[in-house]
Amino acid sequence: MSIVIADDHERERAWLKDLLLASLPQLAPAVEASNGSEAVALVRKHKPTLVFLDIGMPIMSGIKAAEQIIEEFPKIPILILTNHSDEVFVRRLWKLVPSDGAFAYLLKDSSDRQVIDATEAVLGGDCWIHPRIQRIVRRTEDATSALTEAEFEVLGCIAMGFTDKAIAKRLYITDKAVQARLKCLYSKLGIAVKGTLNDDEYNHRCRALNIAVRRGLINRSELEDWEMSNDNTVE
Fold it and tell me: Which one of 13, 25, 114, 210 counts the least CB within 10 Å of its CB?
């Protein structure tokens, strides 16, 4: 057996390594990475039993590293150990994880016992999700509040400041389709739509962005990714 531990903070890696090898010595040896790119390289080299990934790492994020690892080694279980509980991260990870794969999502304020429980669960082929993340997962599975890919696309577009016409051009849809997506987006975010009693109390787009940020549907890193991916598409 072996494990890969990826985190850009040496103290976090040392704590996790000491905890795991003291409680589950059969997992040794443990190799460490300080970014997602190093983690992927170590997985290719060692074919470990488990991989622990932080999300916020330089060069390559934990999510992008997880995507590559799952694509190349779908049978290697991944355990996310992070401070991030944003819904956008949960949403992206849930799309990556194989339906029959072992997986864990822990927050860094988890107790030592929770970390060990999650590790043992994954070793047994099960999944382990932190209670706060479980609530987010349930929300993403609720059709009345979970955004579809189409609604998430239009949220990203208004976050970047695109007009309705620019959104229609970018997504190859009609202006009417843009309005339909926005109406569904506002409804799921609990925003009064046009024609209702309170529809003139605020700017709908600004309100949608405010709620999306608080709910964790968008964040700084996600906006930066969107901006970078759109640099060559905005005229």
Answer: 25
* Averaged pLDDT for residues 212-230: 72
Q: Enter the tokens of residue 142.
A: 């609720």
Task: Give me the pLDDT at residue 48, please.
Answer: 96
Residue ranges and CATH numbers for the domains of the chain are: 3-140 (3.40.50.2300), 149-230 (1.10.10.10)
Q: Is the peptide bond before 29 cis (omega within 30 degrees of 0)?
A: yes
Question: Token pair of 218, please?
Answer: 């968008």
Find all residues with CB under 8 Å of 222, minimum gap 6, and list them. 88
206 class by beta-carbon count within 10 Å (0-12 exposed, 13-18 middle, 19+ buried): exposed
DSSP-assigned letter for residue 34: S
Task: Supply the pLDDT for residue 234.
Answer: 45
Tokens in use for 59? 């060069």
- Whether the pLDDT of residue 102 is over 60: the answer is yes
Question: Residues 205-231: what's their mean pLDDT?
Answer: 75
* CA distance linking residue 161 with residue 78, whole number of Å: 36
Distance CA 28, CA 125 (A): 19
Confidence band, pLDDT 50/70/90 cuts, at residue 207: confident
Taking residues 184-191, report their average pLDDT: 86
What one-character DSSP code corresponds to residue 177? H
CB neighbour list of residue 216: distance below 8 Å, 6 or more residues apart: 85, 86, 87, 88, 89, 136
Task: Let me know the angle formed at the C-alpha of 29 by 96 and 56, rounded to the nearest 5 degrees.
Answer: 40
Task: State the average pLDDT over residues 41-49.
Answer: 96
